[in-house]
Design brief:
single chain, about 425 residues, alpha/beta, Molybdenum Cofactor Biosythetic Enzyme, Chain A, Alpha-Beta Plaits, Maf protein, 3 domains, six-stranded mixed sheet, five-stranded mixed sheet, 16 helices, 17 strands, about 40% helix, elongated
Length: about 425
């Protein structure tokens, strides 16, 4: 079953907002068994919207549109719907009551602009909006189901979760889709692909593989679809086990795991404690760790030692080593890790020191040069990295790499 997603709004094309609706819908529809073939963004122009609807009808079994259902002058989707489906707008008393209730909760009175939200195409099945004023709409043309949703992301999520998903499952006879993810770090995409050539060629025809890189890691997805869930699940899970074996230490998590959730699982289960000393990452590692509920059980704190005097005065880094080797060096970062471990009395500690950029680089230490150290009960390990020229990406990559190194060291300590 092919599906298209159409996002309507000048604010998307102008880059004023991130189009999270398309990402959410593509993920949910794929999980349900649809084959998402197109994701399209169009402006608030009636001709453009009409053209996209016309080109989609009959080519996809499902088209989901977001945006343009509001009551203001730049919301033009309903007028296009009326023209495209040769329909007319009528006031829906249930939607009108929904709008009134919404406004009452916020201490506002109904006006003529708000009342327009209750005008819906006569042919449409109305998808009532529990948390907003613009209802969703379900219509059909040329054997294509069209669903129109408001553009507000949390309203899209609520409408899909509580109404649309169930109705789609009832209407369409969808195949079963099953996929698993392996999270990897430490190997670039090209090296992974080369390493896994024999693995890929050995996969059953029904199982496909995809590489999904990001600044934090590279996810490998194994996917199969069909009618026999037991069969495709068995094929994918067997392939997953073989893949994990081949990846070895490069694989740090599965499916919905995050680095911080894996850190929590390991540290909580072993009753270990953790601290961080951060220079170039500016506290981002600590922020990432504490984004997980319950992190206070194992994470004691952090020293953001951006200035050299903090490295010396708080963490005990030797001034002569800073002078001789520089702040971005193996000697300094190892002392930072060891210093914060002792200062906060933790089992493990992570430290970073680098040149995030875009300024500050030298021929010997270009922007992106980063040293990361992990202090353990058995000593300190450290490694030098060269990430790139973009400050935000360097910080993100340093953070994920530091947590990956930490996970690796704790797993070794466990054994």
């Amino acid at each position: 079953m092919n599906a298209y997603i159409i996002s309507i709004g000048d604010e998307i094309l102008m880059g004023n907002i991130v189009n999270t609706n398309s990402q959410f819908l593509a993920d949910k529809l794929t999980n349900m068994g649809f084959d998402v073939r197109k994701i399209i963004s169009v402006s608030d122009d009636t001709e453009q919207i009409f053209r996209q609807l016309d080109e989609s009808a009959g080519h996809a079994q499902l088209v989901v549109c977001t945006g343009g259902l509001g009551p203001t002058s730049d919301d033009r989707t309903k007028s296009v719907i009326v023209k495209f489906f040769e329909d007319k707008l009528v006031e829906d008393p249930l939607v009108l009551q929904d709008v009134k209730n919404f406004l009452i909760k916020r201490g506002r009175a109904l006006n003529e602009t708000n009342r327009k939200q209750a005008l819906v195409p006569q042919k449409a099945k109305v998808l009532r909006n529990r948390i907003g004023t613009a209802p969703g709409l379900w219509l059909e043309k040329n054997n294509t189901i069209f669903i129109f949703l408001p553009g507000v992301p949390h309203e899209v999520i609520d409408l899909y979760t509580h109404t649309i998903e169930r109705q789609l499952k009832e209407y369409f006879n969808l195949p079963v889709i099953y996929f698993r993810f392996v999270h990897t770090l430490g190997l670039p995409e090209a090296e992974l692909a080369e390493m896994l050539q024999d693995f890929e060629s050995s996969l059953p025809q029904e199982v496909s593989i995809a590489y999904l890189p990001s600044p934090e890691d590279i996810k490998i997805r194994l996917t199969s679809r069909g009618t026999d869930l037991r069969k495709i699940k068995s094929q994918v899970d067997l392939a997953l086990d073989n893949l994990i074996t081949m990846l070895g230490d490069a694989a740090w998590g599965l499916d919905n795991d995050t680095l911080q959730s894996v850190v929590k699982q390991i540290f909580s289960s072993q009753h270990l404690t953790l601290s961080t000393a951060e220079s170039c990452t500016g506290g981002n590692i600590a922020h990432t760790i504490t984004s997980v509920s319950g992190s206070s059980e194992y994470f004691k704190g952090s020293v953001v030692s951006y200035a050299n005097e903090v490295k010396i005065g708080v963490l005990g880094v030797k001034a002569e080593d800073l002078s001789r080797y520089g702040a971005v060096s193996q000697q300094v970062v190892e002392q930072m890790a060891w210093g914060v471990r002792g200062l906060l009395n933790t089992d493990f500690a992570v430290a970073t020191s680098g040149i995030a950029g875009p300024t500050g680089g030298t021929p010997d230490k270009p922007v992106g040069t980063t040293w990361i150290a992990v202090a353990t009960p058995n000593g300190v390990v450290s490694q030098k990295f060269l990430f790139g020229s973009t400050r935000e990406v360097n910080i993100r990559r340093a953070t994920s790499t530091a947590l990956f190194m930490l996970i690796s060291q704790v797993r070794k300590f466990k054994t």
